[in-house]
Design a protein that fits this description.
Blueprint: E1 2-10, H1 14-25, E2 30-33, E3 49-51, H2 56-60, H3 67-78, H4 87-106, E4 110-115, E5 125-129, H5 133-145, E6 149-151, E7 156-161, E8 167-172, E9 175-185, H6 194-200, H7 203-206, H8 218-225, E10 230-231, E11 236-242, H9 258-268, H10 273-287, H11 293-296, E12 300-303, H12 315-324, E13 330-335, H13 336-341, E14 350-352, E15 356-358, H14 360-366, E16 371-374, H15 377-384, H16 388-404, E17 424-437, E18 440-441, E19 448-450, E20 456-462, H17 478-495
Parallel strand pairs: 1-2, 1-9, 2-6, 9-20
Antiparallel strand pairs: 3-5, 4-5, 7-8, 8-9, 10-18, 11-17, 12-13, 13-17, 14-15, 16-17, 19-20
């Protein structure tokens, strides 16, 4: 069986569907292949923040922003990674993020915001309503409206070339799909590929499970088989999250209908900030692990054995230590002094910048399954299910290290005040996860996949994490922004490409 369209999109997340819609509205016929039973990808699993400048949301809020200010703030956020930034792609993101927020709004996506996100000077974070599934629903609805043929449960095995070496299509489930004008790879990152994580970051990172188990790096493999190159593959977002709550998430369970989202926006924009923050705290305590500032104040991290497992100065080291154990379990231990400090502003336990902040008592209220309090360390250990003698010894050793001014176990630098003032507390269990992986196929400013010499591969484009191309994206809301922006641009560019006259597969060079 063979199916031919003007544009073939591989991947049905935010970038893939944005690409498909953009190509269709540019006059092209489009087929989209998604390997999972439903579309949405990591976009539908995310918190859903979209960072952009010069939006109508900013105008209504009286925020006077600019593209130049946006770029300057991204430089600040990059810090030491600024030297390896792809500045051309960053400029494309900065210039197109605002119009893309407006485009999403036009197809039924509603946002709360803009809210502040340090270290940015201006409020730019637009938070999707009611949750990130709104992206998937709106984009799929628009795909159908624009005549995009969406096929799910279609895993692509290989790309197809003609005799001239042009990419002309892909093979999936035993069928050949052709794109007369080009093929777009939009398959997400490689956070679920144990092999790629081990190769590019290390064996310790490879043991950490992904938030999205479907991000197996398919597009990276397809792209490199076609002659593309992967760049900056050394950075994963490794961290600890609370174990999923058995209670329904009050935000995630809301349906993502455009009329409901619009009504929600009108309501929440008029809610007093304190009341809005109260509503969101229940979801915040389900989504986000505790801030590292709690460790700096004296908290410690233990495994299920009751012993400290890592240098708490580093998210990466804590996540790797938790994942190294087959139970992938860790608990934060702290005393009354730390609990008092993190019970009021400006010391939240967890943060949704500019919107809500959760404190120790919020975990008692919303997540009693991860909140533990006891008068003694031995009683706390019993609540956690760890050996009381082991936890008591761990705390005593930690307090002795603080008295001597040196962490003998792991070399931690921010020691804090110890765990010695009862009652005592714990938050957990927490599990290690990789939220996403940076790195991507090298692309040019047209989103064409390029070879080692910088020449583009005829017929092949990439978008989203697959085509990240050296962007750093080191603040919240930029990955979603790049997914949608790059998808729209890639779709438009492929739709404007000329038809290839030769759609015959050259067997000798099928990758």
């Amino acid at each position: 069986m063979t199916i031919t369209a003007d544009v073939l999109v591989i991947g049905g997340g935010g970038s893939g569907m944005s690409a498909a819609i953009s190509a269709a509205t540019s006059g092209a016929t489009v087929v989209l292949l998604e390997k999972c039973p439903k579309v949405g990808g990591s976009t539908a699993m995310s918190v859903g923040s979209f960072t952009a400048a010069n939006t109508s949301y900013q105008y209504r809020a009286g925020v006077n922003d600019s593209i130049e200010l946006f770029v300057e703030d991204m430089k600040v956020a990059n810090g030491e990674f600024e030297d390896r930034e792809n500045k051309e792609l960053r400029r494309i993101l900065a210039e197109n993020a605002g119009p893309t927020v407006e485009w999403l709004s036009s197809i039924g996506v509603q946002f709360l915001g803009p809210t502040q996100e340090p270290p940015y000077e201006k409020p730019r974070m637009h938070n999707v309503l009611p949750n990130s599934s709104a992206y998937a629903s709106a984009l799929l609805r628009e795909c159908k409206k624009r005549g995009v043929e969406v096929r799910t449960s279609m895993r692509v095995d290989k790309l197809l070339h003609n005799a001239a070496g042009e990419i002309i299509g892909a093979r999936a489930n035993g069928a050949d799909f052709y794109g007369r004008r080009g093929v777009i790879l939009a398959t997400g990152d490689y956070s679920a590929s144990t092999e790629m994580k081990a190769e590019f970051v290390g064996e310790a990172a490879a043991k950490i499970p992904p938030v999205n188990p479907n991000n197996t790096g398919d597009g990276f493999k397809l792209g490199t088989d076609a002659g593309g190159v992967m760049i900056q593959m050394d950075r994963l977002y490794e961290g600890l999250r609370f174990a999923p709550s058995k209670r329904p998430d009050p935000i995630k369970i809301l349906p993502s209908h455009p009329l409901l989202a619009k009504a929600m926006r009108l309501v929440v924009e008029r809610l007093p900030k304190k009341l809005l923050a109260y509503v969101i705290r229940g979801a915040l305590t389900s989504w986000v692990g505790p801030n590292n500032t709690m460790y700096q104040a004296g908290a410690i991290l233990i495994g299920h054995s009751g012993k400290r497992i890592a240098n708490e100065d580093s998210d990466k080291l804590m996540a790797r230590a938790a994942a190294a154990d087959e139970k992938n379990t860790a608990f934060m231990i702290f005393d009354e002094r730390v609990a008092r400090k993190f019970s009021a502003w400006p010391h939240p336990v967890s943060t949704f910048p500019g919107v809500a902040y959760a404190y120790v008592d919020d975990y008692k209220r919303y997540r009693p399954d991860v909140y533990h309090r006891a008068e003694t360390i031995e009683e706390l250990a019993a609540s956690l299910g760890v050996a009381p003698s082991v936890l008591k010894s761990t705390v005593e050793e930690w307090n002795a290290d603080l008295a001597n001014g040196k962490d003998r176990g792991f070399g931690r630098q921010h020691l804090g005040n110890g765990v010695n003032e009862g009652p005592f507390y714990a938050l957990g269990p927490m599990n290690a996860y990789i939220t996403l992986a940076d790195g991507g196929l090298a692309v040019d400013t047209q989103l064409r996949v390029t070879q080692a010499d910088g020449e583009s591969i005829p017929g092949l484009w990439a978008a989203g994490s697959t085509g990240q191309g050296g962007l750093q994206l080191l603040n919240h809301g930029l990955h979603i922004g790049w997914a949608m922006v790059s998808g729209r641009l890639a779709g438009r560019n492929v739709a404007q490409a000329p038809n290839r006259l030769d759609l015959a597969v050259e067997n000798a060079v099928v990758s």
